[in-house]
Amino acid sequence: MVAAEKGRGNDRPSPPRVLIIDNDRAHAETVAEVLQRAGFVCTTAASGPDGARLIRDGEFDVIITDLVMNDIDGLGILSIAKEEQPEAEVILITGHGTIQSAVTAMSRGAFNYLLKPLDLSQLRAVTEKAAENVVLRRTNLELHRRLDEKFGFEGVIGDSPQMRDVLEKLKRIAPTNATVLILGETGTGKELVAQAIHQNSPRKNKPFVALNCAALSENILESELFGHVKGAFTDACSDRVGKFEYAHGGTLFLDEVGDMPIATQIKLLRVLENGEITRVGSNEPIKVNVRVLSATNQNIEEAVQAGRFRADLYHRLKVITIRLPSLAERPGDIPVLTDHFVRMFAKKHGKQIRGVSPAARRVLQSYRWPGNVRQLRNVIESMAVVDFDGVLDLDDLPEELVDRSTPVDTHDRVSLANLVGKPLEELERLFIAETLRATGGNREEAARLLGIGERTLYRKIKEYEL
Questions:
Q1: What's the domain range around 352?
Q2: How many domains is the chain partitioned into structurally?
Q3: Whole-number Å distance between alpha carbons of 443 and 441
Q4: CA distance 180 to 318
Q5: Cβ within 8 Å of residue 461, ≥6 positions away
């Protein structure tokens, strides 16, 4: 067995790895020499069993094997390769080629089938194509992994009971085709949830198309949704595909659907009932297969009662309803969201950030976050950009948090004058109670913020009957 490897630079991708298996050792080494000159890293094996062992023990991008060998033949090697290294491409070579053996090899997943004596230029071309296929496949897998990381359930951050309920519901509904209405205040992450539903559904390899219904006039909104034909209106110079057609086979996310004009609501209802759209200015129906997800920050039931939103469309859109809690409703998630955004923006902006100071954490924890998760995300990005010492601290906070200009509930106000003269025991009880409230009852986080151990906190909770 002979192994050869070209030197590889640190800034360049690794050259493709090729395993050559042939009972004729001289022929295997000749093939290796030809491919090494083309930039491949080659390993040879002089028997089927040796080749099978290398496949089980090593990693290869392309496996080139003779078809007729003792003990384990080329089809046996192909079978082992598909089981042990399914990403690798297998090329079979033989001097005893028949149409039947070629059909068998290709039907079992061989990349190509070459006859001896080999045309060396053809060998190089086929091997290069096989290696390109492997790289492309791995690139696509990595892309899907990144998308899963960005838009999968891992992207819906939170460990509070409210968010655990949301995640559990998402896992149940994502594989279905049900329409989903996502409710929540501005900045709670409604589009992120819609992307997570799509990314974890059978439609994940088809388009995800988002449209904000509040940002467009009635005529433009209908053109965006259903498309138009040439001459349908002024400036309609050519036919245009709408969002429904573009999202065919995938998912359409209608943000701020509560702001959709009544006339457009009627047309949307017809699409949901019939699975057909008609372009503006046309009479020809077009079949579409689209899953519709929608979202609003309005009280949609009040809009129905007031006649601003059609009841029949509302019930069509809300086969499943997901309500996202505001950040103020789940303060226990602030620390985990903070750490997530710190990692994200440290990487994005190339900063070395070791963490967040306790003082800054206390400010982040006590703030009311009227802009919800989106506001927290923007604040952490701002802090990461201006930081210079590797620790996000009070000096990195934006003015909105330093000034504490956002109104807070009166029960959040603890003036110094009201504390003067009170027993230390009462002050301790007050601060522990407020910290527990701010962390949503998360004792581990409360103990960390207070600078005491969890056992001590547990004892104090019992002592003060909190």
A1: 327-408
A2: 4
A3: 6
A4: 6
A5: 432, 436, 443
